[in-house]
Amino acid sequence: MSKGRKAWVGRRVPNDDDASLMNSFSELDIDRDTFKSEGPPVLNMAAKSARKDKTMKSIIRKDEAAVSPVIATILMVAITVVLAAVLYVMVSGLLTPTGTGPKTIGVVPGRSTDGTNWTLTFANVPTGLTTAGTKLTIISGSGSTTLGSKAFSALTWATDKVVYIQASAGSAVGVGDRLLISTTTYGPSGYSYQLSDGTSILAQGSLQG
Question: What average pLDDT does the segment 141-152 reach?
Answer without folding.
Answer: 93
